[in-house]
């Protein structure tokens, strides 16, 4: 596990810049650093040593040094790959996974990606062909950013690596900002900066002599397949989960697990215990003083059942002085407030474990989110147009006026979704945190003009429409796998764990398990109000009954309450001072009105938090670097004058 960076160029690659790119990502790899330099290429990496700590250094080379790779991730099938490569006559110097890449490239070229089981983002330089290959894992666990200026291509595991110098351009892309407000994150292929892109999950990018080509090599197919009975499919699920967990426990550093108290992470802890190989595992959980958001009691029950060394931490609003630091790590505005507990559980874990397993992917694979049940039920209810319109009006009123997490709010959400006739539009509404009318209500005239032709809903509408699933709920799951999962959840976990120099592994995101689960008919996942039907059945004997049968709570924080209490003044200081008002994105009076309505009892927490995160990011990642650039320019001018 590490951070990678590099430059390929028609001229001479800037070696000093690549070193700065790696230095700024030192948290991703505190255990080592390595570089490859040639006339028109420079590549580097920062290493977090998980496998083969002594012999697993990078970059890695083939036998004659003509193929070189830098690699971020883990290949869980590396023992099989090594045997195959040795049988084909390749010489391997270490006992880890990273050097497999260069030899697989010799055997299979760009199609080596089909032989990899794991999470990865890598760069392979072919010196004989003067050709760079970039690739990202199927689901999008590991990030990769790139920028092409016509004569050179730069890449890095983090966006900060591509704006490493103060004078680098940091121009906000208004389209990316527009999408961010809708989804809470900037979706691939955009980044928040103009001219810098994210490589999408399951994709490859080739650079040769200044020419680029990009393709998608993998996507999950939700076409339903013939299925056996529930008992047989549940047994198959247990086998797949156990095997996916077993291969993710291979490490030369301590292994632990996040244990939130939900069914997914609890099932993974149970699978670890059944897989064997760890005498006593450490588990980690964070909670809140507000019991509506706290799941520590359920996590403790699982920890007691399996005899883990269990560690807990309570997150309070007083601990949010980490927000500027989180903005620096995320590189882009990111408004999923669960990043806060994710950071703290990673920090807690780092004192005991370098590798942690988690339950990510269980919801998308097996239908865990409430929105899937909403999609399943709403599609079966046919209402006349006037009644739909009334549902929307009443639902909107309840959402504005009902207290946070109150029953009336759930009714309001249900009525609002019933008011939408088309299933794809209903899903788009479910995934939107700022609806179009809400964005345009706060946009400045300049911002309105910049995004007038851009509809953020189209991103998920296209994914929903292209799905081969057998139901609206299934189509929502497929769309989530291609958008929300990599853009929000996986980005959050990668960044918060790497900020603490630990590695997260996700058994539910094993592509073999995911492919099997995707083909299950929806009835095995969601039926009426029941979510995760098959998963609950599969692990029922592994976990306390009350945990298996309880509804999903989610990894949320009491943000609405905090914004009326401990964070109230922060919100006003950040969003209404001269600096924020001068940005030009929003109308100051509209933002002030949003704050006032939240104070009065309406719930605008997700929208206010998105604006706070945008402004904090702007101050930490743009303004501070702009000030540094001005100092550099002033120093250069003074030096020139002295000459």
Concise summary:
This protein is 45% helix and 14% strand. It is α+β, with helices and mostly antiparallel strands and 643 residues long.
Structural overview:
The chain has three domains: 2-216, 4-Layer Sandwich (Glutamine Phosphoribosylpyrophosphate, subunit 1, domain 1), CATH 3.60.20; 230-368 and 476-556, 3-Layer(aba) Sandwich (Rossmann fold); 558-643, no CATH class. Helix content is 45%, strand content 14%. The chain contains 27 helices and 17 strands. Helix 24 (568-576) packs antiparallel against helix 26 (588-599). The protein starts with a strand and ends with a helix. Residues 629-643 have low confidence and may be disordered.
Name the shape in a single word: globular
Q: What fraction of residues sit in β-strands?
A: 5-15%
CATH fold descriptor of the largest domain = Rossmann fold
Q: Could you tell me the radius of gyration in angstroms? A: 25 Å
First and last CA, distance: 47 Å
Query: Average pLDDT across residues?
Result: 91
Number of helices: 27
């Amino acid at each position: 596990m590490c951070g990678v960076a590099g430059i390929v160029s028609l001229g001479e690659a800037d070696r000093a810049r690549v070193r700065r790119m790696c230095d700024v990502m030192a948290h991703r790899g505190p255990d080592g650093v390595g570089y490859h330099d040639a006339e028109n290429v420079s590549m580097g990496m920062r290493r977090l040593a998980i496998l083969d700590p002594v012999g697993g250094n990078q970059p890695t080379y083939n036998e004659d040094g003509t193929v070189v790779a830098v690699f971020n991730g883990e290949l869980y099938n590396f023992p099989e790959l090594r045997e195959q490569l040795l049988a084909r006559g390749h010489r391997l110097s270490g006992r880890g996974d990273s050097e497999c890449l260069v030899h697989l490239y010799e055997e299979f070229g760009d199609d080596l990606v089909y032989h990899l089981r794991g999470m990865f983002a890598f760069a392979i330089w072919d010196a004989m062909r003067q050709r760079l290959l970039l690739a990202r894992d199927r689901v999008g666990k590991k990030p990769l950013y790139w920028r092409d200026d016509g004569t050179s291509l730069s890449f890095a595991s983090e966006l900060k690596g591509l704006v490493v110098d103060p004078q680098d351009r940091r121009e906000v892309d208004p389209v990316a900002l527009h999408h961010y407000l809708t989804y809470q994150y900037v979706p691939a292929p955009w980044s928040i900066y103009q001219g810098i892109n994210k490589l999408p999950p399951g994709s490859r990018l080739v650079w040769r002599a200044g020419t680029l080509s990009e393709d998608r090599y993998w996507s999950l197919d939700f076409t339903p397949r013939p299925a056996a009975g529930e008992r047989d499919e549940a047994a198959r699920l247990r086998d797949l989960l156990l095997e996916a967990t077993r291969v993710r426990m291979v490490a030369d550093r301590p292994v632990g697990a996040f244990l939130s108290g939900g069914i997914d992470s609890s099932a993974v802890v149970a699978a670890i215990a059944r897989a064997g190989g760890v005498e006593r595992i450490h588990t980690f959980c964070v909670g809140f003083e507000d019991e509506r958001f706290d799941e520590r009691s359920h996590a403790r029950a699982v920890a007691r059942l399996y005899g883990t060394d269990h560690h807990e931490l309570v997150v309070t609003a007083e601990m949010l002085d980490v927000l500027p630091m989180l903005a620096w790590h995320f590189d882009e505005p990111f408004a999923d407030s669960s990043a806060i507990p994710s950071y703290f559980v990673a920090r807690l874990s780092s004192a005991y474990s370098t590798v942690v397993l988690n339950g990510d992917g269980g919801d998308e694979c097996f239908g865990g989110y409430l929105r899937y049940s909403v999609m399943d039920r709403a599609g079966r209810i046919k209402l006349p147009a006037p009644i739909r319109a009334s549902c929307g009006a009443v639902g909107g009123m309840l959402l504005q006026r009902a207290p946070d997490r109150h029953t009336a709010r759930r009714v309001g959400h249900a009525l609002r979704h019933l008011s939408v006739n088309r299933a794809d539009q209903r899903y788009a509404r479910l995934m939107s945190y700022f609806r179009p009318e809400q964005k345009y209500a706060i946009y400045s005239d300049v911002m309105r003009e910049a995004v007038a032709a851009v509809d953020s809903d189209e991103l998920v509408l296209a994914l929903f429409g292209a799905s081969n699933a057998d139901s609206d709920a299934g189509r929502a799951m497929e769309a989530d796998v291609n958008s929300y999962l990599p853009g929000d959840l996986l980005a959050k976990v990668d960044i918060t764990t790497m900020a603490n120099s630990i590695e997260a592994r996700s058994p539910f995101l094993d592509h073999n398990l995911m492919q099997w689960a995707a083909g299950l008919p929806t009835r095995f996942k969601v039926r009426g109000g029941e979510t995760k039907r098959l998963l609950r059945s599969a692990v029922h004997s592994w976990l306390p009954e009350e945990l298996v049968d309880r509804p999903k709570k989610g990894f949320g924080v009491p943000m609405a309450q905090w914004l009326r209490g401990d964070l109230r003044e922060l919100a006003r200081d950040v969003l209404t001072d001269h600096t924020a008002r001068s940005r030009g994105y929003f109308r100051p009076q509209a933002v002030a009105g949003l704050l006032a309505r939240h104070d009065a009892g309406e719930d605008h927490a997700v929208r206010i938090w998105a604006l706070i995160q945008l402004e904090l990011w702007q101050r930490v990642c743009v303004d501070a670097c702009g000030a540094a650039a001005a100092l550099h320019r002033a120093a250069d001018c003074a030096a020139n004058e002295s000459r």
